[in-house]
Structures are given as C-alpha cells and as structure tokens.
TrEMBL record:
The keyword Transport applies. It holds the Pfam family TatC. It comes from Flavobacterium collinsii. Part of the twin-arginine translocation (Tat) system that transports large folded proteins containing a characteristic twin-arginine motif in their signal peptide across membranes. The keyword Magnesium does not apply. This is Sec-independent protein translocase protein TatC. Belongs to the TatC family. It is found in: Cell membrane; Membrane. Coiled coil: none annotated. It is a multi-pass membrane protein. InterPro entries: TatC.
Length: 271
C-alpha cells in the first residue's frame, strides 16, 4: 500500500500537516454548525425531537407494515408516555451548542474525508491516489446511510422501548434533555461508524491485519453481537429486532466480500 521516500518529510513536518488538517476540519465544522444556527428551530423541533412524537415517519411506517403482515395494530405506536425536561441552569444552552456542532460535523464529513485523504495520499502508490474520488464518495455515502439508519431506525426503536418499559405503574417516565440528546448522539454516530466497517476492513486487509478467513471464522460471534445490539435497542418483538439486525448483518457480509477481493489482489501482486 505504501511506497514513499520517508526522508521527504520529517516527523515534525508530519505533525505540522496533521495540525493543519485538524485546524481546517475544525473550521469546516464550525462553519456548518453556524449555518445550522439559522435553521435551529426546524433542527430541534422537527428533526431531533421528531422521534418523540407518535406521528414520526418510522412509527407510521411500522403501523402500515403491521397491517400488511396481518399483525393488526400489534406493532403500531399510538402514544409515547413520557416527557422531556431540562433540569440544569445552562442545560439547554449546552445542548443547543453541542447539537449544532454535531450537525456541523455530519454536514462537513465529506470535506473532512478529503482532508484525511490529502494527509495519507503521499504514502500511497500513484494508482491508489487516483481513487480519491471513489474513497470520498463511498465513505461519505456509507456514513450518511449510517446516520439515516440511526435516525430512522435505532432512535425510534430506542425511544419506543424506554417509553413503554416500566418497573412499576407508580414510576413515571420523565427523561432529562441531556439523556435524550446523549441517546441521539450515540445512536447516530454509532450507526454511522458501524456503516464505515467496509472501508475499515478494506484498509485493514490492505495492511495485512485482517483476512477474509478471519472474518468468516468469527462470523457467528459477529451475528450474536449484532442480535444482542438489536435486542437492546428495539422493543421485545421479532419484527423490530429483524429490521435493525438485517442491515447490520448485510454490512458485515459486504465487509467480508471486500476483504476477499482485496486479499486476492494482494496475492496476485505478490506472484
């Protein structure tokens, strides 16, 4: 993967390049965060807090799916019995800033990838450097698919589960704003990072750290982990768990296929 005269840049030169990568990426995030400020009402009311209402798209789709499968209203979500409250003096201000920064990071992700590519490209072959557009497009596409999966699947399922779960009728659900926003950030970023698995496997296989045999060997463990995650973030019904688990299993299978292709190409190059 790497073939470059290491004497061209000193260690301090690399640190300087890394510093400017972080500076430019931070500026990009701040700019996009500032842009989201002008649509903050829509961002919070319709997007971030959307899954707290029964009229959210996913809940309606689940109800339609329930009817199509002949389950009547078994997985229909008609009410979410909880309230979200702020209990800290500066709670809403802090949440406002951090969620705008999160939105800024998501919107500027393709640019950040481009900066990362520029940083690592000197260590690549000329043929590999020509794949910059493919790398940025594919990585960005997977990232945004992960964000959408986290937002439209993981968050609604998590909200529905915690809203309907109760240890006693005496206990009422009153969630803090900070805990809800933390769940939103974790679900979105966690899903986005997981969807980058094929890209990570590509580079790990390229470096010789992972092989398709290794991934296939531990496939059953991966399935168990994915099913556990799906069971945790969804209500206790098979349909919801399946909807969450299937895309994650497909991502893992795609990663194995990518690893096979890269591994075969490496073997051909070494012949």
């Amino acid at each position: 993967m790497a073939k470059k005269n290491l004497g061209e840049m000193s260690f301090l030169d690399h640190l300087e390049e890394l510093r400017w990568l972080l500076v430019r990426s931070t500026i990009a995030i701040m700019i996009m965060a500032f842009v989201t400020y002008f649509v903050s009402d829509y961002l919070f009311d319709e997007i971030i807090l959307g899954p707290t209402r029964p009229t959210f798209f996913t809940y309606i789709w689940f109800c339609d799916l329930s009817h199509q499968l002949g389950f009547a209203d078994s997985i229909c979500i008609t009410q979410l019995n909880f309230i979200i409250q702020n209990t800290e003096m500066e709670g809403q201000v802090n949440i406002f800033v951090w969620m705008c920064l999160l939105a800024g990071f998501i919107l500027s992700f393709p640019y950040i990838l481009w900066e990362i590519w520029k940083f690592i490209s000197p260590a690549l072959y000329e043929k590999e450097r020509k794949n910059a557009k493919v790398f940025i497009f594919t990585s960005s596409l997977l990232f945004f698919l992960g964000v959408l999966f986290g937002y439209f699947v993981v968050i609604p399922m998590s909200v529905n589960f915690v809203a309907t779960f109760s240890v006693s009728d005496v206990v009422k659900n009153q969630f803090t704003l900070d805990s809800y926003m933390g769940m939103v950030k974790t679900s979105i970023l966690g899903s986005a990072i997981f969807f980058e698995l094929p890209i990570a496997i590509y580079f790990l296989t390229k470096l010789g750290l992972v092989t398709p045999e290794f991934l296939r060997k531990y496939w059953k463990y991966a399935v168990i982990i994915i099913l556990i995650i799906a069971a945790i973030v969804t209500p206790p019904d098979v349909v919801s768990q399946t909807i969450v688990a299937i895309p994650m299993l497909l991502i893992y299978e795609v990663s194995i296929l990518i690893s096979k292709v890269v591994y075969k190409n490496k073997l051909k190059e070494n012949v």
